[in-house]
Give the backbone structure.
Amino acid sequence: MKFELISSIMRIVFRVLPWLILLVAGYFFISKKFSINTSVESKHQLLVEKIESIGKLELVRYQISDVLEHKNKTDFLPEASVLLIVKAEAVGCIDLTKITINDIDIDADTAVVNLPQPEICYVKIDHKNSKVYDTKMAFFREAGLVDEAYKAAEKHVAAEVKKSDILAQTKNNALIVLRPLIEGLGYKNVRLTFE
């Protein structure tokens, strides 16, 4: 009985196997012989919408790394999570366009310049160097989950940058950069203050 069953299975395999081999070989032959070449073409029409004058002097750049685990909990689906390694940068600057003639006091060889308060020019995520390290149970929700995680990372990094000493460092760097420039104009006594 067993022998008959094995024998009939072997007959079926030997009958189907040549057709299967022929089908696979035919597919590869046809796909190679009649391959369809595709080309990609993009057309762009660049339009400059706005030109702005910017007088912000960038004085310090912080490069930041953040490891973030973002979870999405729902009632009817398993908990989805994503682990990101986020790279970001924050830049401190002063806006030189805010300086008016009233902020500059020159007397013989003395120059007093009242500079605007330092500010955080921008905080941005470096998507090129950031990585999705791992996802769990995300399935069809992965793109949305990763997008939510990046937005959460951007908010967290911006909040942490505000708590940091970036503005104090910007002030120090402003003094280091601007004092020699003003001294180079012939003023021996240079005093830089912040309003």
